[in-house]
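The records we work with from here on pair a chain with its fold. A complete example follows; check for yourself that the lines match position by position.
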Amino acid sequence: MYYIGIDGGGTKTTFTLINQDGFKVDQIKTGTTHHEQIGFDGVENVLSIGISNLLSNNDILKEQVKAIFLGLPGYGEVKSVKQKLDELAAKIFDGIKYGVGNDVEVGLAGSLAGEGGINIVSGTGSIALGKDLKGNFTRCGGWGDYVGDEGSAHWIGKKTLEVFSKESDHRIERGDLYYNIRKKLNLSDDFDIIDYVLNKINKDRAKVAEFSSICYESATRGDNNAIKIFKEAAYELGLLVKMIAKDLEFNEEIVVSYSGGVFKSEDMILDTLKEELVEYNVKLIKPILGPDEGACLLAYKLAGNNVNEEFVNNLSKDIEEVTV
């Protein structure tokens, strides 16, 4: 029998097929499954094609799939949206045992290998989820880019654009960030950035989030305004952890991990995050598994299986050749 984990995100979606022992059989990546970006029809199309290709590429029948777990951005935040996504999942996964949750759920399951603690997701958006000693869950953040998503790549990207405008006006001192953006976008006039954001990328949240990479480049070159943005992002992400730590029951030491593209900046975000959490006796660890593997773990558990160390070790390995 086989299991499928789907890690949906604001930028990409990963479909992972594993066997009974936890070894990866195949993995494919597609575009976003965020309904705000591609609509519900777009979500249905991405999921349907992704599942179909995963099975056909490996000569596996739908009946051979024992369980699927799908993590989706924005799931569970708006009742009408949740209902629509549930309807899509029931249609696409008809005949297969399945579960649907927010993408932070697969992040938590992966980063801590199913154990208790707190996971911070900071990709295009931001959210955190905690699981305590009694199995209680609490989430914090995940309000979307119009209301919140502080500390996310979109938030960093938006802050980067804000700093660029201030530097252009000489409201604050110009630095590497200002010249880096001018070079990257080949701007002859600073006001051309308005046309770029409004018309060329149509305020696309994933495209705005890409400015976080430019900010990171400038931060690594010592630009003070860029470094400040990352410190502010770490502060905001730390608030998510603090709220969950107060709401749930943990041992004296709280294990916290993370997932999402913002954490590719590593120490640029992690050093300040550690400082923010020093009073909470947090043990910040690298993710044990990725969110895509976390989705597989949840699919495996959904089918009634117990997860052990051997399964986790197998799941953490690169795709191996498996007879199907």
Observations:
- Residues 224-247 form the longest helix (24 residues).
